[in-house]
Design brief:
The chain has 658 residues and is an alpha+beta fold. Strand 17 and strand 18 (454-456) form a beta hairpin. The radius of gyration is 24 Å and the shape is globular. The N and C termini lie far apart (51 Å).
Length: 658
């Protein structure tokens, strides 16, 4: 049986299973288990191209502009794991694995990395698979094992209401779950091996638990690395741009329900044969049944999102919760107050979590904070650049060690002197750096929509000019997308490789071939003047690169629901990049379109760095639906996309001087 699940993480999926013939049989990582539950599809309508045998990764550390290579000598050789239940203040028992270097000497003092997940801290393997399966195989397991062998303790935790832990949850990252983190850190620093300092890291869900941990004010918490994780629950994952991301919430909710019932959320018979459920605490196997019984009180996030249109709407499931109730962006002031150092990491194909990473970095104030944006999908195991797709060559373990060695061990390794921001330019296939995002040299250059599908640098001077579009609610962006990445279902570095065919039916506006290279780095901002026959709609805008042979490469996208078009400058809960329109998504700012009236919608596309080569063209496409991922609110809509001298639609591109 030959089939492979690529690894990517939580709200992500680090796929746990890798079947490659009988030699490798099955690989499952305790830290990739979290993502396992995302791997629920096994076939695709179209097979992506295969990675070239001559592929060479261009995203590795080391070259000018990239994070510096950090070479360390592993002082330890093996790891050992113990497990236990830790009772919390209210008596709820939390399942914890403590993983230490097996050859840690008496008197050695090491820092700890806290890893809190709701996707099982470990798996229970059935016979005979338990004879050869390791909880530290797979990309994520190997990454954390390298950290441990360099002198760290890993504290892996089943969050309250999940895995083998007791309790229940009304929503993710409850107040009780956050407080549990504080108490676990209290326990950690009392251990004989502890040096009194704690960090936290994780991808997706566990990245957000790390961020919440930094808001608790525990004096031992010095640094966190939220990787490929959200910042604003409403705008980053549940309702991006005010449009419900139903594909994600529906599948995520179903997978969580399966896990909470101690079942794998995948159908593969070999996987189910190998995995018996969550790893029990040693000597407490019967407690798993009690944990599952208590998990039946968990509420569904997917059901809750169905009643959310505005940011301040209340879930009709529990009649209490709004998205901001469990959103880390509302607590940024706490992280600033406590001075915890934060390393935000994401990729351009990571849903819109690169936008989350940027907002977090711009809002938090510690001068030791770092931001890194790479050519990656959710989890960062693949280089998805359309010009060099293949396995990622970047070592996250090395970069994490550099960051934590400085903040938790006091090693002067030079990271404090590196630029605060590292970003990768697609098309040029090159790392670059800056102390700010976007780089200070960036200047917006407008490109105006014109008659005949043209995109030009001059303002249109004609009257009553528009492009008609009847919204096609059957349009979808396919299966090789940034949004599938969030569930670990991209499974290939060839993201959007079928985009040329998919985007062809859309209204398109293309520039003439460029006379020189043009690099954009930052947040494109689109201004659409639209007349619609409907009071609402979802507006999707796609930025693309067209080469001289007519091949189309997807660059980035953005979307906005029409009722949320009001641009506000008051009471921003976070900082945005310069020039980015802010939408509150609050009920008081929501208003319907007036049918037959020309209205302005201004919004940004997700941040990216991309080099359009000389001779290539810039293309903008517009849609009113993405059936493969988003709630469909475009039924019956007919638009006029205006481009005349009174109402000229245009896009501002953040251009870097060359």
């Amino acid at each position: 049986m030959i089939c492979k699940f690529y690894e990517s993480e939580t709200l992500n999926c680090y796929s746990l299973f890798s079947f490659v013939g009988m030699k490798k049989m099955l690989r499952i990582s305790v830290l990739s288990i979290p993502f396992l539950f995302w791997c629920m599809t096994f076939t695709m309508a179209q097979k992506p191209p295969k990675v070239s045998k001559n592929y060479k990764a261009t995203d590795a550390a080391g070259p000018e502009g990239a994070p510096k290579i950090y070479t360390v000598q592993k002082p330890y050789k093996k790891v050992k794991t113990t497990s236990m239940y830790l009772p919390m203040r209210d008596g709820v028992k939390i399942a914890v694995n403590v993983v230490l270097p097996a050859d840690l000497k008496a008197g050695d003092k090491i820092p700890a990395i806290l890893y809190q997940t709701r996707y099982w801290r470990g798996a229970q393997f059935n016979w005979p698979f338990n004879a050869f399966l390791s909880n530290f195989s797979g990309n994520s397991g190997k990454m954390m094992k390298e950290v441990i062998l360099n002198g760290y303790a890993l504290i892996a935790v089943d969050a309250r209401g999940s895995g083998a832990s007791m309790g229940s949850r009304k929503h993710p990252w409850t107040e009780d779950e956050v407080q549990d983190g504080y108490e676990i850190v209290d326990w950690v620093v009392k251990q004989p091996w502890s040096n009194g300092k704690v960090g936290s890291a994780g991808i997706s869900y566990s990245g957000t638990t790390a961020e919440f941990l930094a808001t608790t004010g525990h004096p031992a918490i010095k640094a966190i690395a939220p990787m490929f994780s959200l910042y604003d629950v409403y705008d980053d994952i549940s309702v991006p741009g005010g449009v419900k991301l139903q594909y994600f919430t529906t599948n995520w909710g179903a997978a969580n329900t399966a896990l909470d019932n101690n079942k794998l959320p995948i159908k593969d018979p070999l996987a189910k044969m190998a995995v018996g459920g969550v790893q029990p605490v040693k000597g407490e196997r019967k407690m798993v049944k009690e944990a599952v019984r208590q998990h039946q009180a968990n509420l569904s996030v997917a059901d809750g999102v169905r009643s959310i249109t505005n940011r301040d709407d209340i879930s009709q499931v529990d009649k209490v919760t709004s998205p901001d109730r469990f959103s880390p962006h509302t607590r940024s002031s706490k992280i600033n107050e406590y001075g915890v150092a934060v390393y935000s990491v994401s990729g351009y194909y990571d849903g819109n979590y690169q936008h989350a990473a940027v907002k977090r970095h711009l809002t938090l104030e510690n001068p030791n904070n770092k931001l890194m944006l790479g050519p990656w999908e959710h989890g960062g195991w693949m280089n998805c650049s359309p010009h060099n797709p293949g396995p990622s060559g970047f070592s996250k373990a090395s970069e994490l060690l550099k960051f934590f060695d400085y903040h938790l061990k006091g090693i002067d390794n030079g990271i404090q002197h590196e630029p605060k921001v590292h970003y990768y330019t697609l098309g040029e296939e090159k790392w670059k750096s800056s102390n700010v995002w976007p780089p200070a040299e960036v200047a917006f250059k407008p490109f105006y929509f014109q008659e005949g599908g043209r995109l030009e640098s001059s303002i249109p001077m004609v009257q009553n000019s528009f492009t008609p579009y009847t919204v096609d609610t059957t349009f979808g962006t396919g299966v090789f997308t940034r949004w599938r990445s969030l569930l670990g279902k991209l499974k290939t570095p060839y993201a959007y490789h079928d985009w040329q065919k998919i985007s062809k039916p859309l209204p398109n506006f293309s520039s003439t071939p460029l006379t020189e290279d043009v690099e954009i780095t930052g947040h494109p901002v689109v201004h659409l003047y639209v007349k619609s026959n409907m009071p609402d709609g979802a507006f999707f805008v796609y930025l693309q690169d067209v080469d001289p042979q007519g091949n189309v490469h997807y660059v980035t996208e953005g979307q906005l629901r029409a009722i949320h078009r009001k641009v506000s400058s008051e009471n921003r809960p976070h900082q945005d990049a310069p020039g980015v329109p802010y939408h509150s998504y609050l009920k008081k700012d929501s208003s319907p379109l007036e049918p037959g009236k020309t209205e302005l919608l201004s919004f940004d596309l997700y941040p990216v760095s991309y080099l359009f080569r000389k001779g290539h063209s810039i293309r903008i496409s517009i849609s009113g639906a993405d059936k493969d991922h988003f709630e469909n609110i475009g039924h019956g809509a007919k638009w006029e996309i205006r481009h005349d001298k009174d109402h000229f639609s245009f896009i501002e591109l953040p251009v870097m001087p060359r």
